[in-house]
Amino acid sequence: MPAPRPTGTSAAAANASGLFLPGMGWQLVLALGSMVLLMVLSISLVWAQRDALLDRAQAQAQREVLRLGAELDQSLRLARASMSGLDTESSAPGAGLSDSQRPLILALDLPFALKELPVQPEYQEAPERQWLPGLPRQDNGQWIIPMVWRQSAAEGGRLYELQLAREALLARFASEGMPKDSSMSLFRIEDDGATTVLSRHPLVEREQGMKVHGHLSAALNERPSGVFRATAVVDGIERIVGYQRLAGDAQRLMVVYALGTESVLAPWKALLPWAGLLTFLVMFAMGYGTWRLQRSMRALHDSERHFQTLASHLPDVIARYDRQGRFLYVNPAVESANGRSPEALIGRTITEVGTPEPIAAEWMACLDRVFSSGLSETLYFSYPGPKGMRHWEAQVSLEPPSQGEAQTVLVINRDITERREAQARTLAAQQLFETVFQSAPEAMSLGDWHTGQLLLVNDAFCALFGRTRENLLGHTSLELGLWRTSRGRQDLLEELASGASIREVAGRSTRPDGEEIHVRYSAERVQVDGQDRLLLMFRDVTQLEREQQAAAQEQERLSRFVLMLFRLASRFINLPVHQIDRAMDDALGDVGRFVHAGRAYIFLYDHDNGTASNTHEWCADGVSAQIDTLQKIPMSLVPHWMEAHRIGQRVQIDDVHGLPVGPLRELLESQQIRSLTTLPLMVGEACTGFVGLDWVGQVHEWVDEEMALLELFAQMLVNTQLRTQTEGRLHALTGQLEQMVTERTAQLQESVQRLQVANRELEAFTYSASHDLRTPLRGIEGFSALLLQDHADRLDAQGQDYLKRIQRATLHMSQLITDLLAYARLEQMTGHMAAVDVADLLEKVAQPFLEAVDRRQGQLTWHVQPGLKAQADPRGLSMVLRNLLDNALKFTPSDRHPVVRIEAVQDGEEVLVTVSDNGQGFDMKHHDRIFGMFQRLHRQDQIPGTGIGLAMVAKAMERMGGRIWADSVPGQGSRFHIRVAVHPQSPAPKAPTEVPA
């Protein structure tokens, strides 16, 4: 095999070998000149580096003061905006920021406090609508920088003070990480042009409040912002100073960022020795290189020989061709490729060595293109060899011609059979992924990790989001509205990047037709074609969400039904007779609103005259009253109603339009009634009338609890009628003549007994209603427990969680019924007034709480005036104090030691008892709300309870002729005050005695 010819580099090396032997003087001069030029260039570059450092420092100083000035201006602008909030919420001096404003203020880089100041003489001459900075001062142990703002007379002339915490400002300065001898400061510009230091980092106490006439004053006279270099008046250190005077209403403030020149140039000075050393080394290398050049060129010839050796051992087939496609050189690797030795190929063309005609033609066309254009090409071809059919990649490049020789092409052939097979396997895997992806029942999408552009979606995805594949692909998920905000998608990417698992996350989206859908989605970060992709899988839970919402609504309706029952039951207990008519009207309204009726009414029968008259009526908004026109209606108009009522059955008309044509239908249609029901009022075996409900303009579908409510209401009305008739007869008897008193006394006692029986029946009904309500609750709780105990293995985690929620709801409802009964019993509990020894009562009430207080390492004390007695019901007053002590411990956070204090003193003709704690307190705007039924300021999972405790306390105090009120500050505890009458035999007031627990 002939050796390759010398390349152009080898020939040049051979020619140059004689230049470095005789006559080296001109080369030495050239080398020395180059060294001098290198030294001058090095000095210029080093000095340019110094100037660049100073320029960057000046740019940094200017940038930092602009940024700090913008942050300070942002805080001042927000403070001005917050003043309107203070004006609307409170006009009292000293008012501070509201709860809604604080989170926004705290999110600033420079947070502040803002309050209104009383009008002060020293600020009368202050400019209007301008910030007037004051010197730093201490306020509640904290250093602040005050700034006063005076409104214009048209705005009210109020004074506000912005308090900027010095520590927050210094922390903002320190966050810049300034180098040594650098500082960041806030100055006040005086009227004479001088500057006063308000705050400086690093902090030097003696400089705070210092007034300086110096370079800053001179610079401000020229322009409001800029950068200069100067030696500081205070410490004599040279610095690069950037300053920015705030504009507009804050023009008396200036921020300054100063970089120590020595610190800025420290890297440059540290670089000088190395730059000198590097220059010396380069000069040495140039001299040494001159000596080495001759040796290198001589070695170039040896390099060519080494190339041949290397080519002979490479696995790639290397060949050289001329324009006719003749082999000029080929390495030994060709033998393993096609089974022929290099000697059998050199000197012969591609066609002559037996290359198949299509491959030979493709090769000759490629060689012609490379020879003609001079551009390299890559050729892919398959060729049968000793190892079977193999796939090859050929890099075809034109070689530079040697003087006097023809151009040649160098070809490097690489076997890529294994790579092609790997690519085929990858393609098959990708096709399998796409097949599984498209056929998956869950909605799936594949999008670009960075841009969010959808690259692949399956049919389930298109169906879920109501869009075609053509409308989805190529668009970003944010453009399509699949993400409501870009922040949501960015948060998801950050969680995935941190390694978090995203599974079954709740989300919502809107289809093009406006329908909102609820989904649960999972996400993965995957690699496709070497690129990051976001794979999302969605599950439609819209129907499940609707079912859960319906269940919650049903639970709410059940709660409202229970409350309605107790409200109706308690309304007529011990109600004076003269208030019964109004109470009936109110009760009709409650029942009508609960069942969404248009009209609720009571009719009484006059059997003697054969008529019925409307006695009480409630009408919804927009429904006209009919009570005046429905008087003395002939019973013959509705004979079948009379027959049904006589035997105690209700009359129900689902749709008036279904009645036969006649007077009844005409009467009902004239009132626009579509559905109605009536229940008889039965007194023993006699029907005295009926209570009814009309649905005006709509057809009503009945539910069981509505019918139960109406039946109970009808029985209440009967009891009330009996009571009214009894008390009416009693009132009539008391007006008879004195000689008939003895005769009528027996009748009066009988009437009283009947009244008591009616009250007991009403009370029995209340307890019966509560028992009937408890029975299904106990059934629900019991069967839920049995399901969890015996069938837990058949339920998934979600089903078990639903059962546990049902148990908690039933227990809560049971406690609610208990509390409502206790509330109803207050009418009897607080009816026995007597002298109560306050000290003895407090001792008995507080004892059960001592163990809980000790367990939480707290303190319970009471201070009672000796001999103090109150005129109250003992059981009612005990219940009030127990509830207040229980609330004091319950609303004290678990991480805080409770401190509860009770004080009891005589205040005029009343006993004042105060219970104070250090709990979490409440906002006074909710004061009246906390004493209402079912009014809670916290969720059930935060603080347990039914929301009836304080309502019972208020009711008990009302029954005892006393009152209760509270005062509180959020986070600082509460104080509850109760007043009851003092007992006439209570001794004169003395100093209270403290009893520690």
TrEMBL record:
Classification via InterPro entries: BphY/WalK/GraS-like, GAF, GAF-like_dom_sf, HATPase_C_sf, HATPase_dom, His_kinase_dom, HisK_dim/P_dom, HisK_dim/P_sf
Domain PAS: 303-357, 429-478
Keyword Transferase: yes
Entry keyword set: Kinase, Membrane, Phosphoprotein, Transferase, Transmembrane, Transmembrane helix
Annotated protein name in UniProt: histidine kinase
Lineage of the species this protein comes from: Bacteria, Pseudomonadati, Pseudomonadota, Betaproteobacteria, Burkholderiales
This protein's record includes keyword Membrane: yes
Pfam families assigned: GAF, HATPase_c, HisKA, PAS, PAS_4
Enzyme class: transferase
Membrane spanning stretches: 26-48, 271-291
EC number(s) stated in the UniProt entry for this protein: 2.7.13.3
Coiled-coil residue spans: none
Catalytic activity: ATP + protein L-histidine = ADP + protein N-phospho-L-histidine
